[in-house]
Amino acid sequence: MENSFRIPKGWFVSGDAPAKYEMGLDTTVTYENRPCVTIKARPDPTEFATLTQSFKSDAYHGKRLRFSVAVRSADVENCAALWMRVGGVDGKMLAFDNMLHRQITGTNEWAHHAIVLDVAEDAENIGFGILLSLNGQVWMADVHLDVVGPDVP
What we know:
This protein has strands at residues 12-15, 21-31, 34-41, 48-56, 64-87, 93-97, 104-118, 125-133, 137-148. By secondary structure, the protein is an all-beta fold. Strands 1, 2, 3, 4, 5, 6, 7, 8 and 9 form a nine-stranded antiparallel β-sheet that branches.
């Protein structure tokens, strides 16, 4: 199936069933007059799909990072969520948050969400993104990845 959205530079498609979703830049929905990225379920979606970025963590060793974005959702049946992962040697997971206990469901106007993780000295890479599981559509805008102090929970 062809994707009607263009994947923005620096982002890639991932997840358990990315072919069951359309993902990329949606120029019809804006946030502060800028287009947004979206994940939209195709008919009969399964599992989940995610728009992702990943990079080497060297510059962030020993620091605390906050991944924050504005999210809008429409008819999200199961869940939508931000996620962030700090990985180590041989793919070992050092830190992970996928908003398990604060998932986005239903239809919601723009709201800011954030994930904060500590980056271990032996971290190799950092990945982050937004995911959609089953029916609905989610939009993401105003993406920030910031170093924050230990006072930020």
